Amino acid sequence: MRISINTSKWYDPIWAAFLFFTRLPLWKVYQPPKDSYQRVVEYWPLTGWLTGGMMATVVYLGQWIFPFPIALILAFILRLVLTGALHEDGLADFADGLGGGFNNKQRILEIMKDSHIGTYGVLTLIMYYALLFSTLYALGPHYAPWAILAADPFSKMVAGQITQFLPYARHEEDAKSRIVYRKFTTTAALIYFAQGILPFILLIYTTQIQNWNIPLFTPCLIMFFLYLYLNKKIQGYTGDCCGAIFLLTELSMYLSILWSLG
User: Model-level pTM?
Assistant: First the structure.
């Protein structure tokens, strides 16, 4: 009789999350088991501590060397390099699929899987970055770094919940990454929530935002409407949807922080 021994380490899904959501060459150091990648969403907000932290550092230090707008653009470039434009690719595919596929689920999924970018994708990315730059510029050198540090992990925490509310819209073998994320356990959900909320608490403490409930609930509201929209259009989610929801909820959080600061 063959005895199956579980050799997975507690840090395997954490390592897998950083391998999956960034382009850091961590695979040269350690490659976790394949089944660890089914749990990467559980630690997606933790990767936001890295990307958000590095972006915030570039904005904070960069403004002492360059004009503030250049520091912001350098921070954008850094995240694109760190993530390989993973989320921006998702947003573009999301816009192309839902913009060009109309109400045909199969057509929407086909367009999303197509590696070519279409008109909807191009226009969406232009409008997204125009709004992102304008909002962070309006927040100014003092508030922008703290907003970035909080919004990146918090928005990933909000966006990742789509994997718990909807089924995967394709078959596993049809997934771009060949991965379908598993459902959270209670412990995983608590750890997941802590990853997203701790930087937000730091934002409240450092900036003294009075209407902190607005930046807290606005991304959740945006995610809820996107959940309803996806449920109607494709009755599920894809990896592209996760990336798109993250960027849109993050943008909504910046806008709500700006509004709260008056």
Answer: 0.93
